[in-house]
Amino acid sequence: MQSMSIDPAAADIGARVADNASQGLQAGATASTPLTSLLPAGADEVSAQAVAAFTAEAVQLLALNQAAQEELRRAGEAFADIARMYTDVDTAAATSLTGVGPLPGFRMAAG
Description:
The chain is an all-alpha fold. It contains two helices and no strands. The two termini are about 30 Å apart.
């Protein structure tokens, strides 16, 4: 029978992925204003159209970045939650079988 446990480091990795995604969301929010508020280089029609096109592309890419970072954050949180659940179940099962809590040195999943 295959073991149904998970390395507690998975919770740390999940938390780091979620933190990185939060930083990515913040970076996107910071970049939003400079990317979407450009002024035309000149008063001509070509400059105005170039700024409009650049702004439209920037808005689309910022939205794509936000969706990707939110998905990464959710995935990281899910990894951390799953690792925590495995550790809780393993601990409860060990306690019910042995009558004692986790052994010294047992790594608990952090959250």
